[in-house]
Design goal:
The protein is mainly alpha-helical and 905 residues long. It contains 49 helices and no strands.
Length: 905
């Protein structure tokens, strides 16, 4: 292939035949042929004008069939993606020119391929270097030839989708011309062109692009004009636009809002499911607007039945879900059915906080149809009913109750199933109004767990889990016991979907019931252990979760020999079967971590092999990571989740076994590995490392102590609230270390704290901690952890921390007044009392906050109470009776009484 530059480029016949042959071969289904083609393509890429041949076949070689020409364009697109920077400039110019000249090819497939090629070139940052692109496409829109107009629009839509931000920031302001141009085409006689035009404009709504905002009224007017369009794509794009406008320009929709609501109600029932789904999103968007209740108030009684109707399984859903297959528990899972699981790293909250450190909510069950994990009309309708129930609360029950009466007891299983889904969807928003009906509904639902249709049994599991909180609050004999018995039968159901739903529902019940489950533990464990031998791959992973949650919920009550004997053999058997690189280790390690923490000394017989393997997983991951950084071409990067989960299980072991872990730590290199993990660029690795460091500090400080000089600077660097959970665990760890350092110094120096070993590190950490406690919008958990750690530092090094008292005392008191009395609160308050003794002036301005925090204790230990007494009376004596009275008159009544009764001030 020679490059000819004198005249317009022409292919050599020989070269052209070679490439056509290759294109033919690449359509072969045979794998060996495919590999051969890949190899030849790589070789051909060495010729500068290879890409000219490809564009020539795509745009000029009309004698070939469309699929062959299109394939040539797609190979060219891949080359652009991989090697564009290396293309000679004349090749680049030739390709760009050919694209623009042929944007209106008569074949829709070729037009679409050229559009993809254009947008791939633009993605290479070529918007700036291809000055004629947008003007040329813009001119083509006005062409009388439909193909040219449609081809240009297809390309523009792809460019707008992929480069909205670049177009908006372009100094030549192309959107000032493009957007008004697009709006003109909303009334074009071709539905395809109308659809392209709206799709182009829609890319600029969410970012509130200025060029669109100036035309917003004419945009909305045009949308109304298209409301009744016959074409499904046009209707879909109109709905999509209105959904986004709710979020961005609600003010502009208000004058027409009643018409819009009527329109969207109608579209939510569109014959085309994809249009109905786009329209149904509108209710989710609207529910987030403060004005929702006012806007929907007069429509809600008509909207609710529409949403309920959308919650029924469609015929196609039932086919996809194999709704007619009732028993499939013997059928092995396809690997493709198993969604990747994401491990949630351990986050150390002080033991008094509720919920997850980062406030993550569990998924709300609208993903109950895993094989349909695509969002569909049923899920969207259910989610919309859920959010609207949260907006309107019990006000929607007069509309809903008659519907529930009709659907829940219907003869057709599809309608009954949708009624049970409705009941679950409103559980959160309408709980108060539903309570009077639950004594009748819960037994009915429990009976539905035995329905002959698997899809009815599975949705019933989910709906019952939404009412678990109420069930647990009633006399056990009445609801909890029968519910538990039936759910556990469903855990062993012959249908895999039901097994999965029952396991998830049971985990929710465990979280709600906690130690209330203790009397039934034997029965529960029998069932869960039996499921081990029954479950296929996917549900096994959910079973681990149910066992882990059980351990978290009942804690040390699990540590009975008969329970340990039932539970541990199957877990250890799985543990032995799984290879180190098997991702199924994640959920098993998470589960074992909870079990180890709960069993405490009961886990001792199993701990050594588990401990060793975790250390080995951490080490293998670090080694592979090092190899990957030094030879990135030959070694893949590791999956760090193996290391994270192993660190978390080690944390569970340290927390559960306490000092029993001593010899294991002594005989391993875990602290050396931990030092590396603490410096990992991935936040989740650091988060789990600091959790483990804190747990090892509590369990066997003598092994941690020699490393403190290396660890402390790393902990200090991680006091960065940008990564909440990392910062949280680093803060907690520093607090645990300071208490242990103080104690070990104390033991050496006979209660003389002056030679404190923590002292050199105070300046490293106290500044960032004070910054965190004073930051606005810091999450509650992090505030509490920070306050406790500052108090603990003050306990072991009062002279170093006390001078800063005034900078944090007000926030400190506010953060800790709401937590329950416990060891951590105790050590933190002792520290603050020590600091006040060193620097009483630091608390004067905020003394009322200190009084309030002292009054938050229900039963402080006697010596701590004595410290409070001295400080309160010292302050009172210093200011005198009259000033004290004036000061304490500002207190709220309950605070004044409490201090008077408890401390006589």
């Amino acid at each position: 292939m020679g490059l000819q530059t004198k005249m317009a480029w022409q292919p050599e016949d020989n070269g052209l035949q070679q490439i056509l042959q290759l294109l033919k071969e690449s359509q072969s289904p045979d794998n060996a042929t495919q590999r051969n083609v890949q190899q030849k393509l790589e070789e051909l890429n060495k010729y500068p004008d290879f890409n000219n041949y490809l564009i020539f076949v795509l745009t000029k070689l009309k004698t070939e069939d469309d699929p062959t020409r299109s394939l040539s364009g797609l190979i060219l697109k891949n080359n652009v993606r991989a090697h564009f920077e290396k293309f000679p400039s004349e090749v680049t110019t030739f390709i760009k020119q050919e694209c623009l000249n042929n944007i209106g090819d008569p074949s829709p497939l070729i037009r679409a391929t050229i559009g993809i090629l254009v947008t791939t070139i633009v993605a290479k940052g070529e918007l700036r270097n291809w000055q004629e692109l947008l003007p040329s496409l813009c001119n083509s829109l006005d062409s009388d030839d439909y193909n040219v107009c449609e081809g240009a629009f297809g390309a523009l839509q792809k460019i707008c989708e992929d480069n909205a931000e670049d177009l908006d920031n372009d100094s030549t302001r192309p959107l000032n011309i493009l957007i008004p141009k697009f709006l003109q085409f909303f009334k074009h006689n071709s539905p395809k062109i109308r659809s392209h035009a709206i799709a182009c404009v829609n890319q600029f709504i969410i970012s509130r692009t200025q060029a669109l905002m100036v035309h917003i009224d004419s945009f909305i007017e045009n949308l109304f004009f298209l409301a009744a369009d016959e074409d499904t794509d046009v209707r879909k794009n109109v709905c999509r636009a209105l959904v986004m406008l709710v979020e961005v320009r609600m003010d502009r929709l208000i004058p027409q809002i009643n018409n819009i609501v009527e329109y969207m109600m109608c579209r939510t029932q569109d014959d085309d499911d994809s249009v109905a789904l786009e329209a149904c999103e509108f209710w989710l968007s609207l529910a987030e607007q403060p004005i929702c209740k006012e806007v929907l108030g007069s429509h809600i009684d008509r909207l609710i039945p529409v949403l309920v109707k959308g919650m029924k399984y469609s015929e196609i859903d039932i086919i996809l879900l194999k709704g007619d297959v009732e028993e499939d528990d013997m059928v092995p899972d396809k690997e493709s059915d198993i969604k990747p699981r994401f491990h949630k790293s351990k986050s150390h909250t002080q033991k008094h906080t509720d919920g997850d450190a980062d406030g993550e909510l569990s998924d709300d069950g609208y993903d109950d149809d895993d094989s349909l994990s695509d969002w569909n009309l049923r899920k969207c309708s259910a989610a919309a009913l859920d959010v609207l129930a949260n907006v309107f609360r019990d006000d929607i029950l007069p509309v809903l109750l008659p519907i529930l009466k009709e659907t829940l007891f219907h003869n057709s299983w599809e309608i009954k199933e949708s009624g049970i889904l409705v009941l679950g969807a409103i559980a959160e928003g309408c709980m108060t109004g539903m309570i009077p009906h639950l004594p009748e509904l819960i037994p009915y639902l429990i009976s539905c767990l035995g329905d002959k249709k698997a899809l009815v049994r599975s949705i019933t599991c989910w709906t019952l889990s939404r009412y678990a909180h109420w069930v647990v609050g009633q006399p056990h004999e009445q609801y909890l016991k029968p519910l538990m018995e039936e759910l556990l039968k469903r855990v062993l159901d012959a249908n895999k979907r039901v097994q999965e739903a029952a396991c998830s529902a049971f985990a929710t019940l465990e979280e709600e019931a906690c130690t209330e489950l203790v009397p039934y533990l034997g029965f529960i464990l029998e069932t869960l252990v039996f499921a081990f031998n029954k479950y296929q791959h996917k549900n096994l992973l959910i079973l681990y979760d149910a066992i882990g949650t059980l351990a978290d919920s009942v804690g040390h009550h699990l540590n009975k020999q008969e329970y340990v004997n039932m539970l541990m053999p199957p877990l250890i058997e799985k543990w032995n079967v799984l290879k180190d690189e098997d991702k199924d280790l994640f959920p098993l390690l998470e589960c074992l971590s909870s079990v180890a923490t709960a069993l405490q000394s009961g886990f001792l017989p199993y701990c050594e092999p588990v401990y060793r393997r975790c250390v080995s997983l951490v080490e293998q991951t670090l080694n592979q990571n090092f190899a990957n950084q030094t030879q990135p071409d030959s070694v893949d990067p590791p999956d760090k989740d193996f290391m994270i989960v192993a660190l978390d299980l080690l944390s569970g072991l340290a927390e559960g076994l306490e000092h029993h872990i001593d010899s294991l730590v002594a005989n391993s290199n875990i602290l050396k590995l931990l030092y590396q993990c603490m410096q990992d660029p991935m936040p989740e690795v650091r988060q789990s490392s600091f959790a483990l460091l804190g747990d090892l500090t509590k369990a066997c400080f003598q092994h941690v102590k020699p490393c403190i000089g290396e660890f402390m600077p790393i902990l200090a660097q991680n006091l960065n609230p940008e990564f909440i959970s990392v910062c949280n665990n680093a803060t907690w760890s520093i607090g645990e270390i300071s208490v242990k350092m103080g104690l070990s110094t104390n033991n050496n120096n006979n209660n003389n704290l002056t030679g404190n070993e923590m002292q050199p590190y105070i300046t490293l950490v106290i500044g960032p901690l004070v910054d965190i406690i004073n930051r606005p919008n810091t999450p509650k958990t992090l505030l509490e952890n920070t306050a406790i750690t500052i108090g603990r530092l003050g306990l072991v090094c009062p002279p170093e921390v006390a001078p800063m008292l005034q900078q944090f005392i007000r926030q400190w008191c506010s953060s800790l007044r709401n937590i329950r009395d416990n060891e951590e609160k105790d050590s933190a308050f002792r520290g603050v009392c020590q600091m006040i003794n060193v620097n009483p002036g630091g608390v004067i301005q905020d003394f009322i906050f200190f009084c309030d925090a002292v009054a938050s204790w229900s039963q402080p230990k006697a010596d701590l109470k004595e410290m409070f007494y001295k400080i309160l009376h010292g302050f009172k004596n210093q200011v005198g009776e009259e000033n004290w009275t004036k000061f304490s008159d500002q207190f709220p009544q309950p605070l004044r009484e409490r201090l008077a009764v408890q401390y006589g001030v």
